[in-house]
Amino acid sequence: MNVYYQIRSSQLDRSIKGLKEHFRKNSASSGVLYSPAVPIKRKDTPTKKPPKRPGTIRKAQNLLKQYSQHALEGKRGGCNFTPLEGKDDMLDVEIDSYIHCISAFVKLAQSEYALLTEIIPEHHQKKTFDSLIQEALDSLMLEGEGIVSAARRATLRHDYSAVLTIFPILRHLKQTKPEFDTTLQGTAASTKNKLPTLITSMETVGAKALEEFADSIKDKERQMIKDKFKVGTLKSHYLVGAIMSPSLDRFSR
């Protein structure tokens, strides 16, 4: 049993990592997705461009980037905006790569379970399957936690745009969860709880970032009101001074 699950576990993990590497490499270099199993020989092979984030998410991300950058520049005494484009496409590739790998894991895990039911005695099937999927599942969960940690660090820097990386992934994880739960039925509780734990982490970080972003907007508005009041007061003082100055000159003579 140990030999079987070790071999199949290694194969499953390599398949996921191979898909991830292929997806990133081809999407980043050509902007076109090809199946790893189909050699590219003809120029007229039908192609599919990598999906872009919905326009609303793109707009929100740019607005959050601008606001975050403005807030940071304001703290340093500047207010210049730099170009925001450049990394968006790469970010899309990373997001889509992770989403595809999550879906691939569920499908491959289903295939592995169907295969082992034909080979492994019934009373060993659940435990063998649990052991078999651990390496690939842990790798995906670790990558997900890395995404959460990156968003959390960005939020601490008041870069609220980074949290938008989480939302497409979070939506996909929630959509995938029912099938994930069904596939992992019979595995240990610690195994079944890994995806829900990641979902909770993403929800927590996302909610925290949005809450802080809303608070920062309120603080910014209050500061703008104070600044306007100060400017208005200075203008009033200047006008009073301008009016009183001739009178003072007359009295001083």
From TrEMBL:
Gene3D superfamilies: Exocyst complex component Exo70. GO terms for molecular function: phosphatidylinositol-4,5-bisphosphate binding. Keywords: Exocytosis, Protein transport, Transport. InterPro entries: Cullin_repeat-like_dom_sf (IPR016159), Exo70 (IPR004140), Exo70_C (IPR046364). The keyword Translocase does not apply. Residues 99-223 form the Exocyst complex subunit Exo70 C-terminal domain. Pfam families: Exo70_C. GO terms for cellular component: exocyst. SUPFAM superfamilies: Cullin repeat-like. One of its GO terms (biological process) is exocytosis. Belongs to the EXO70 family. Component of the exocyst complex involved in the docking of exocytic vesicles with fusion sites on the plasma membrane. This is Exocyst complex component 7. It comes from Paramormyrops kingsleyae.
